[in-house]
Amino acid sequence: MAASSPSPIFPGFEQARVDTLKIRDAADVEQAVRAAIASEQPLEIIGHGSKRLIGQPMATNALLDLSALNAVVAYEPNELIITVQAGAPLADVLSLIDSKNQQFAFEPINTSALLGTPDIGTIGGMIGAGLAGPRRIRAGGARDHLLGAHAVSGFGDSFKAGGKVVKNVTGYDLCKLLAGSWGTLAVMTEVTMKVMPRPESERTLVLSGLDDVTANRAMTAALGSPFDVSGAAHLPASAFRADIGGFADPGSAGQALTLLRLEGITASAVHRAAALAVLLAPFGAAEILQDAASAAVWSSIRDVKSFAADGALGAWPVWRIVCPPATGGALGQALSRDTGGDVVYDWGGGLIWVALPPKPDAQAALVRTRVNAAGGHATLIRASEQVRRNIDVFHPQQDGLASLSERVRHGFDPKNILNRGRMIRGTAT
Amino acid sequence: MTIMMPASDQAVLARRDEIVAALRAIVPGEGVIDSAAEMVPYESDGLMAYRQPPMVVVLPDTTEQVSNVLKYCFEQGIKVVPRGSGTSLSGGALPLADGVLLGLGKFKRIREIDFDNRAVVTEPGVTNLAISQAVAHAGFYYAPDPSSQIACSIGGNVAENSGGVHCLKYGMTTNNVLGCEIVLITGEIIRIGGKSAETSGYDLMGIITGSEGLLGVITEVTVRILQKPETARALMVGFAQVEAAGECVARIIGAGIIPGGMEMMDRPAIHAAEAFVHAGYPLDVEALLIIELDGPGVEVDELIGRVEAIAQGCGSTTLQISNSEMERNLFWAGRKAAFPAVGRISPDYLCMDGTIPRGALPKALARIRDLSEKYGLRVANVFHAGDGNLHPLILYDANQPGEMDKAEAFGADILRVCVELGGVLTGEHGVGVEKRDLMPEMFSEIDLNQQQRLKCAFDAQGLLNPGKVFPTLHRCAELGRVHVHGGKLAFPDLPRF
Questions:
Q1: Of B232, B210, B252, which is closest to residue B385 (Cα–Cα)?
Q2: Per residue in B313-358, pLDDT tens?
Q3: Chain B residue nearest residue A144, CA to CA
Q4: Per CATH, is B346-439 categorized as 3.30.70.2740?
Q5: Residue ranges of A 187-206 with Cβ closer than 8 A to chain B
Q6: Residue A39: its pLDDT value, please?
Q7: What is the pTM of this model?
Q8: Which CATH number describes the domain made up of B110-227?
Q9: Which domain holds residue A42?
């Protein structure tokens, strides 16, 4: 039976065609997946639904809603681990670990500004999407911080992966697969994450007026230094078309900014900022942002505020390109020139966000040709449903790798019950 | 040898001459070894209690040869055991009587050093240390540093997800590899990742790392390299009780300090090490911590002060701080020589490798003491205290009838204790053959089946390194079956909104 009441979570969603299954515990997930297998009905897995707009459009008749699986099971700051249920609100978990001066070192992205959704989402969504922020260059991604999980496979069986300690090589590392699998392999019900101390202080060096390729060289020099840079981003002048927040202090509207972050105990951050400024002197004089001002800038970069849904480019499709870091400047510049789009750089050039003037194919062929030549891959992170239907949202893989990935998926979900078709075009039905 | 390996395929053994000839056609010259005498060095790896001559040893030197060897073995139904430098401590490269031992030792070339992208592309037979040495002139290094780093190969490191004393701060192998070329048992060559921070699609690099040679044969690895920290200093702190040392470790972490290394030794390990290297270790303490801070001098100096205060607050009875590289190296000398030092005081020893939550350390050590009495065997403990990775060394004499079996039973009991206390069977040495039969202590049959389905995606015939990791290998057809539970009624009993 379909429900009739409007969903508080998904305004405008066609309720009449969709069952929302509100999960109470892990056993419910098993039961729902088994029923889905029996009735050959695929399930869309959601927490808060904050990232539903990412991926190929799916044709599912039922939502598996994990938002009620929201408990913190155990938090042991001295063991550097936290165990939470997958539906736990990310905002709550972040504030809990923050209260003990700890953090997820990979700096998970809050996609709400980019996608125009109201919520930051759940822990399960954070891992399923695996979108890491600026500190990925130093601390790794979500995959490096997921230590263990309980999940229900597409066989309808609850299984355990990994453990609850920071060092473990017992059996295959299934956690790595779950991170970034967009809910297509298994439904996570409980996860154990590694937490790390939050740095005492931070400083950000700001260089002004560099073109993309020169900025890429400056970031490469910084990341090749012993100063332990934990953020390296470049925002061309076009990134400031609208007020993107966080950038009041530099006041460099109309100028490109190159930003390099140093974190640690105060004495160390101060020392390294000064030393890095000397190293980068050939690229110009650096302004230095401290603590709160620095944090505000990086939060804006992390969440790609330049391309916010309510900003000047809100209607433009957005690509997320991951490439060898030293090639980023040239790649971004070429893409910007060829497509008429805007770019911003993170990860020292290894992550490029590209917003393009709207076209039915989001200029996929052009973007992917350029990206392939650089040895990277491109994901269409924001686009209308129609555009996402037209093109491959995730980067197409070479034949051998694609078949191997499909065999791996099949090993978790042979009936294609979980988020059917989200990662591969043409497999939704 | 007390572990059961898969039954030998007599039909394969009967065709040995023909198989050797076929392999020689693929790998010419000295690349195929079939004489009993020349195969002796390949009979075991770092877990020397287990030995088995292989049917034949093949040492290819190109990816194409690897591919053709695997394709031939796949078509002929012949088992294959991959091997790097043979330093595995869990028997990961233990040969099979009816299997081809595929050694990657000839893949010794570093293919590309790319400082701008902070990456090194290397063949799998290159040693861990050789990578660091190749980039040292520019101030870079490769962070994971297993104690066998002068000998162990990077391909083996990826297969085992090797750790080292610095992995609390810098991660294990899995956190430091970017991509690889892998050859499947069918001979198919697959490239995963590259110099980018992330691979596209599912993180297959993440599961290949630590898959212990069961999924494919690695023929190229791309690792990320880091700039060496400006400086490093160490503290050596003694405690009258293990509990106080454990508390000190917890408080350091609790204070937001992640040391480059944080090692603990118990009294028997301290005494053995001191007698061996004369590092100046205090002999009247129950636990010794070596804590290393690295980074810019200004940071290291300040953190040394903070750690010193924490240690004193925990009642340390001795405390020394290194003031030179010579002193720092001396502090480490005993710890680094702990295994051979223990080897001097006992004819044989078994090195275990469980991980526990750090807070459970006093409990774990008490349980190990009880077991030591029960089995009548001595034990010395060294411990990567920062990440809870425990290495109890069980002392025994293989010449005494039954003593090796007793030592193995003792070791198994220690690992059971680790799991019981919330930990895991292995922190960095791998499951191999050594811990294979203990896997059910940690994983249910459903858990293990899910892992084996992954194996099926790579090697459905189970020809790559069988007998390792899994106590029983199920047939892939059986594992792939979906059981339809209950009737066709969709979602009974669930609240709907």
A1: B252
A2: 999 999 999 999 999 999 999 998 888 899 899 999 999 999 999 8
A3: B175
A4: yes
A5: 196-198, 200
A6: 86
A7: 0.95
A8: 3.30.465.10
A9: 1-198
Nearest C-alpha in B relative to A406: B457
A166 touches chain B (CB under 8 A): yes
CA distance B115 to B71: 36
> Which amino acid, B237?
V
Chain A positions touching B442 (Cβ under 8 A) are 163, 170-171
**Residue of chain A minimizing CA distance to B215:** A172
Is the CB of residue B367 less than 8 Å away from at least one CB of chain A?
no
**Three-state SS for B31?**
helix
Identical fold for domains B10-103 and B346-439, yes or no, is no
Quick one: A216 and A169 in the same domain? no
Smallest CA-to-CA distance from B301 within A227, A272, A267 is with A267
- A332 and A299 inside one domain: no
Q: Does A272 touch chain B (CB under 8 A)?
A: yes
In a domain, A425, yes or no: no
The rounded mean pLDDT for chain B is 94
List, in sequence order, the alpha helices (H) in A141-285.
Answer: 174-178, 212-223, 266-279
- ipTM (interface predicted TM): 0.95
Would you call A172 and B451 a contact, using CB atoms and an 8 Å cutoff?
yes
Nearest Cα of chain A lies from the Cα of B140 at a distance, in angstroms, of: 8
Question: Which letter does DSSP use for residue A54 in this model?
Answer: S
Q: For residue A400, tell me if it sits in a domain.
A: no
Instruction: Confirm if A427 and A421 have CB atoms less than 8 A apart.
Output: yes
Domain boundary among A198, A219, A234: A198
Distances (CA, A) of B326 to A3, A266, A334, B331: 73, 29, 52, 9
A193 three-state secondary structure: strand
Judge whether B418 is closer than 8 Å to chain A, CB to CB.
no
* A305 close to B (CB below 8 A): no
Which residues from B are below 8 Å from A223, CB to CB?
118
The two three-digit tokens of residue A16, written as one number: 């009449």
Same domain, A299 and A310: no
- Could A22 and B296 be called an inter-chain contact, meaning their C-beta atoms sit closer than 8 Å? no
Q: Do A37 and B485 touch (CB under 8 A)?
A: yes
Residues B282 and B290: beta-carbon distance below 8 Å: no
pLDDT number for residue B486: 55
Nearest CA in chain A to B361: A79
Give the CATH number, domain containing residue A27.
3.30.465.10
- The CATH code for residues B231-339 is 3.30.70.2190
Model pLDDT for residues B113-172, shown as the tens digit of each residue: 999 999 999 999 999 999 999 999 999 999 999 988 999 999 999 999 999 888 989 999
Residue A415 is predicted with a pLDDT of 95
Contact between chains at B203 and A177 (C-beta distance less than 8 A): yes
**A77 to chain B: closest CA residue:** B254
Q: What is the pLDDT along chain A (429 residues), one digit of tens a residue?
A: 344 454 333 334 344 456 889 998 889 999 999 999 988 889 999 999 999 999 999 988 899 999 999 999 999 998 999 999 999 999 999 999 999 999 999 999 999 999 999 889 999 999 999 999 999 999 999 999 999 999 999 999 999 999 999 999 999 999 999 999 999 999 999 999 999 999 999 999 999 999 999 999 999 999 999 999 999 999 999 998 777 877 864 445 689 999 999 999 999 999 999 999 999 999 999 999 999 999 999 999 999 999 999 999 999 999 999 999 999 999 999 999 999 999 999 999 999 999 999 999 999 999 999 999 999 999 999 999 999 999 999 999 999 999 999 999 999 999 999 999 999 998 877
CATH number of A299's domain: 3.30.70.2190
Point out the domain boundary residue: A147, A182, A198: A198
In this structure, are residues B396 and A179 in contact, taking their beta carbons and an 8 Å threshold?
Answer: no
Beta carbons of A87 and A69 less than 8 angstroms apart: yes
Say if A59 falls within a structural domain. yes
How far does the CA of residue B393 sit from the closest CA of chain A (Å)? Answer: 19
Q: Do the domain assignments include residue A417?
A: no
Nearest residue on chain B to A266, judged by CA atoms? Answer: B299
Residue B308 is which amino acid?
Answer: E
| Angstroms from A136 CA to nearest CA on chain B | 8
Beta-carbon separation of B197 and A405 below 8 A: no
A170 with A240, same domain: the answer is no
What's the domain count of chain A?
3
